[in-house]
Amino acid sequence: MSDTKLWSYYDGCSEGGREGWSQVQLGSDLDGAVTGAPGMHFSFQQIQHLWSQFVEYQLNYYPPYCELEKIVNLTTDACDALDGRIDGVVSRTDLCKLHFNLNSTIGESYSCSKTAEIIDFMPYIPAQNGTVTKEGVAVAQEILNGAHDNLGRRIYMSYQPTAQFQDAVTSYNETTGEYGAYFVEQSAQWVEIGLNLLTNISALSSFEGVTRDTFRDWIATGFQRHYDSLETTWPDLSVWHDAGRKIMYPNLSYNQSIAELDDWYRLFLIPGGAHCGANSLQPIAPWPETTFSTLIDWVENGIEPKTLNGNIQSTGKQQQICGWPLRPLFTNNGTDAECVHDQKSIGTWKYDLDAFKMPTF
């Protein structure tokens, strides 16, 4: 038998990322893992998908999707240059949070052609024309503020500015010409089946009697009931660490102790990226297509990944993606790229989920 070592790896995104974390937590026999945009905090995520609809219900305004899309496009235009380069990609959503006021979009006109669906599982959307309203901006701002309980304590974080408001899509009544609620089916079913333990196939269809505290309690119930199976937030990864294994974590999360984990854990936030793929609203954003080979080089050859190589699919050009906590900044009229430390911007990624008495890793 050959004494050549056989290496074992994991590569997954979204639910695949969550499943990868479950194996990392178990200290499995893997040598390395790429866990992109993992669906960890499962009970939080499922309820988070209902928050946008609840905001519309509370504010009693169901915006045409085109109105929200216009707000996103105007946000992108306004925040594009904050990273030092105007290219249609918002690499610094943290600076966008610090400097952009959504109220500046009120009164801007929008127009969209009809579409059979926005994305998978979304409803029919008619042709739309209008102007951005203060009610629409109030909905968008409250969604971006994130879920809070009745006392104003944070339940969960929200999406970054320039993210699409897909959870806030509304249904259109062709008879009345009015827009109304459209529940995200998977999350609406989670409430009835995963939390209320109903055995029939049913889904939440109304927010009557639901308060902000209800959202907190739904999450707490799911967290407790499914902690050992779906949450994948067990914080002690010492078995994995002590075995000398590596993990790379592209996309959308934050951990204050990243600096202490640098020898085996790397986090990369993908500028302009969508969930596990390129973003149609920022088509020239870089996307890391060689993450897996980068992990192999780190594990087998000791080559530490300071950045990820991002490919701009529409142009074929390459761009380096900074490793956290460094943030991208372009100088010399956008021609030179740096990875810089910006403590004020880093602060925008820190959240205290103080609505809960339990630790929420």
Q: Mind describing the biggest β-sheet?
A: 4 strands, parallel
Q: Unreliable segments (pLDDT under 50, ≥5 consecutive)?
A: 252-256
C-alpha end-to-end distance:
44 Å
Strand order of the largest sheet: 1-2-7-8
| Strand fraction | 15-25%
Q: Kindly state the percentage of residues in helix.
A: 25-40%
Number of extended strands: 13
Compressed to H and E, one letter per element, the order equals EHEHHHEEHEEHHHHEEEHEEEEH
Number of helices: 11
Oligomer: single chain
Can you tell me the overall shape? globular
> Structural class, judged by helices and strands?
alpha/beta
Rg of Cα set? 21 Å
Give the overall average pLDDT: 90
Number of domains: 2
Overview of this protein structure:
The chain is α/β, with parallel strands linked by helices. It folds into 2 domains: 9-40 and 232-322, no CATH class; 42-227, no CATH class. The chain has 11 helices and 13 strands. The strands form 5 sheets. It has a 4-stranded parallel β-sheet. Strands 9-10-11 form a 3-stranded antiparallel β-sheet, with no helix packed on it. A two-stranded antiparallel sheet has the order 3-4. The protein is globular. The termini are far apart. Mean pLDDT is 90; it is low at 252-256. This is Carboxylic ester hydrolase.
